[in-house]
């Protein structure tokens, strides 16, 4: 069997969309294969790519990466290099700066554009999320150019091969600094901007400081996805090699109970990988996976009281004075803002919401796969409730020292008949590499209500069900997030009842 243990750092350069609805076109692909034990470059590949429509290369695009239409006129199309790109990426650990939000989706779009299945990663290392969480803002913002300047590595060229090599060097420099700080923390970090024991960002001289992890190992009852030692052994990769602990993998193990162990290792990157994975994969932890039998059912009639409001309260029945926001233990000493109602999880039921925009796939998970959501119009009582919760959470979030940009949960845009809207998120889970919906979805026709069972993870099937103008009842929890310099609350759909027209 071919050894695919190398880590592939890759980067794409693209056109810049200049109008609504215009997508990205690949202009360049670059990658290096890294030995995970010796951290040396073993192989590299880069090529310019000619888009089908050269007019997409605008002046804005040229200013971004310097790639002109003339430069790619004689370059191969993506279809010409697809085999090589697939061979480099498929089955390996993917690494890069902001690859989860940008490069991974672009690769998937490129393969979809030529009607071919996209490569799949063995695991991912997004250095933007990783270094934001561990290294902090001591280098300013977390852009690659800022990190490179901080370490004296020169200017970023915004060309694929140069950028991946710079990315790899930045990661090694950051890891070295953190290793040294963890070796002599009382000396090297006494006056440092960032302590190696990190949890909460705070303001100091305009820079975000990570501080206060402490020794707590409180862990929530839900599960977190990290690599198991068995899988490491099966992949023939040693658990203590320099890079592997950074990788996010798709293996689920239960959380451990609270212990009174000594302070967690400040340079434990397995722990960090899990913390970052938590931020990315919150959708996957809402409920336990269902049985295979239930996924193969077609539809079943719901029993009476299938969706009673025992645990879900309508907005006008919720007293704001009984809503509290606490800073609760989260994972291995980290903390998270938790929203409670009378000291229990806040769960809301809102009926007859009109869908404004159908299923969106703009947000992605750790491997660049779509995380689904849709937008509905919000009633005045629901807006009033969510605005009040938003204010409570934002205040505590700022009090903890977060420097992230706050995004209101209710979206308001001026214009005639332009009602306020909210976004409902549809969590998914993966069972044995098979994705499935976690949200329970029902369809209501006159006096009959049926629970829908989906045989497979089909976005098109959901898209045909949740269309603009459709009315539905939503049962959702209210969660907080603070990730990659943005923060806010989000609404996680537990149950949906879709009204047939």
TrEMBL record:
Cofactor: Mg(2+)
UniProt entry tagged with the keyword Magnesium: yes
Transmembrane segments: none
Record's keyword terms, sorted: Exonuclease, Hydrolase, Magnesium, Metal-binding, Nuclease
Pfam families, alphabetized: RNase_T (PF00929)
InterPro entries named among the record's database cross-references: Ribonucl_H, RNaseH-like_sf, RNaseH_sf
Ranges of residues in domain Exonuclease: 6-180
This protein's record includes keyword Metal-binding: yes
Gene Ontology MF: a single term: 3'-5' exonuclease activity
Chain segments annotated as coiled-coil in the UniProt record: none
Protein name, per record: Protein NEN1
Organism: Nicotiana tabacum
């Amino acid at each position: 069997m071919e050894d695919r243990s190398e880590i592939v750092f890759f980067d794409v350069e693209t056109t810049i969309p200049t109008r609504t609805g215009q997508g990205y076109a690949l202009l360049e692909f670059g990658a290096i294969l890294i030995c995970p034990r010796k951290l040396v470059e073993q192989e590299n590949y880069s090529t310019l790519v000619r888009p089908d429509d050269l007019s997409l290369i605008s002046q804005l695009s040229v200013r971004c990466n310097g790639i002109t239409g003339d430069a790619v006129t004689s370059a191969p199309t993506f279809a010409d290099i697809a085999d090589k790109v697939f061979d480099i990426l498929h089955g390996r650990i993917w690494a890069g700066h902001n690859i989860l939000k940008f490069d991974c989706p672009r690769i998937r779009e490129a393969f979809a554009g030529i009607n071919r299945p996209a490569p799949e990663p063995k695991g991912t290392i997004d250095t933007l999320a990783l270094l934001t969480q561990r290294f902090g803002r001591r280098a300013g913002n977390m852009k690659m150019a800022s990190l490179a300047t901080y370490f004296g590595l020169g200017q970023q060229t915004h060309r694929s091969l140069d950028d991946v090599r710079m990315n790899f060097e930045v990661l090694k420099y950051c890891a070295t600094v953190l290793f040294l700080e963890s070796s002599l923390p009382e000396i090297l970090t006494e006056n440092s901007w960032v302590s190696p024991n990190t949890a909460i960002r705070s303001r100091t001289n305009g820079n975000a400081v990570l501080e206060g992890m402490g020794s707590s190992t409180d862990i929530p009852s839900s599960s977190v996805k990290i690599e198991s030692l068995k899988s490491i052994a099966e992949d023939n990769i040693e658990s203590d090699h320099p890079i592997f602990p950074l990788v996010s993998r798709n293996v689920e193990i239960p959380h451990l109970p609270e212990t009174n162990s000594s302070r967690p290792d400040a340079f434990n990157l397995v722990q960090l990988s899990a913390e970052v994975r938590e931020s990315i994969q919150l959708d996957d932890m809402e409920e336990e996976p269902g049985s295979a039998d239930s996924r193969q059912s077609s539809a079943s009639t719901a029993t009476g009281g299938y969706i009673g409001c025992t645990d879900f309260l309508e907005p006008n029945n919720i007293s704001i004075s009984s809503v509290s926001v606490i800073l609760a233990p989260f994972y291995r000493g980290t903390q998270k803002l938790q929203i409670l109602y009378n000291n229990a999880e806040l769960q809301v039921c809102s009926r007859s919401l009109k869908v404004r925009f159908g299923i969106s796939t703009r947000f992605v998970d750790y491997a660049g796969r779509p995380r689904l959501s849709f937008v509905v119009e919000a009633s005045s009582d629901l807006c009033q409730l969510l605005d009040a919760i938003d204010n409570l959470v934002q205040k505590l979030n700022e009090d903890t020292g977060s420097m992230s940009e706050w995004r209101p949960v209710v979206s308001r845009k001026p214009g005639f008949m332009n009602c306020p809207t909210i976004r409902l998120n549809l969590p998914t889970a993966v069972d044995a590499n098979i994705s499935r919906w976690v949200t329970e979805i029902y369809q209501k026709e006159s006096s009959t209500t049926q629970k829908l069972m989906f045989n497979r993870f089909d976005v098109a099937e959901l898209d045909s069900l949740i269309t603009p103008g459709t009315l539905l009842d939503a049962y959702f929890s209210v969660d907080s997030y603070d990730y990659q310099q943005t923060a806010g609350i989000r609404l996680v759909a537990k149950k949906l009842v879709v009204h047939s027209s």
